[in-house]
Known about the structure:
alpha/beta, 8-stranded parallel β-sheet, 48% helix, globular
Amino acid sequence: xxxxxxxxxxxxxxxxxxxxxxxxxxxxxxxxxxxxxxxxxxxxxxxxxxxxxxxxxxxxxxxxxxxxxxxxxxxxxxxxxxxxxxxxxxxxxxxxxxxxxxxxxxxxxxxxxxxxxxxxxxxxxxxxxxxxxxxxxxxxxxxxxxxxxxxxxxxxxxxxxxxxxxxxxxxxxxxxxxxxxxxxxxxxxxxxxxxxxxxxxxxxxxxxxxxxxxxxxxxxxxxxxxxxxxxxxxxxxxxxxxxxxxxxxxxxxxxxxxxxxxxxxxxxxxxxxxxxxxxxxxxxxxxxxxxxxxxxxxxxxxxxxx
Length: 306
């Protein structure tokens, strides 16, 4: 049995941090990493969807991860998403991540061309081979990647001893049960969709990675604690409040991650910049919405945390 304890808990997806010119901000990255250390989360998931990975270069991603590792100082489990839309760059990022001492690398399947499953498996195994001493996490997000993790493909990937689990961001919560039942206790399934956090945990997810956790980590930590204690009615109250915040943040004209960065500036004093084009920036009409979302989070923390 592998020791998977370092993955069991709340793992926020790390946000892209930019300076005024739209370049990676080392200061912003380090401030955000230290923020997560202070909040007491289990770890961070770096350079994934919330990190705007599709719109960043190999060098951008390296720079972000280097500053995360520097600021975290070994106090966070770090999972580095290294997928690019070609194997060569993905392997380069995997080697770099291993050299920095991350806990795991992760990857979505290649997008655009619909590859057969054996080609997807080869892609993932090639990435894993570039980081031979590091755990590998499959990222299943079919609604964006256009490719779903099937049980057949999952069985093929489990032949790789470095594969430790799945970040499951498909919407049917029963997928978590399906993957966990197939894999057994020696693998970890992470809940992906934030809006179904307690459902995923109830169905067997032992860890959770989410894009809105960073805006309100205390609420997700409290929910997770209630789930562990079997207090599902209390957890559900927080889930409903969290979902209202998420719905509010998703209602902006600008991109969700721009809203979250605005919320973090108001509530936590973090300067993380905007979002990278072609993601839409916040409009002037979004500013009131950002204020409202920030206020909703403060009110929920006062209600549920005292």
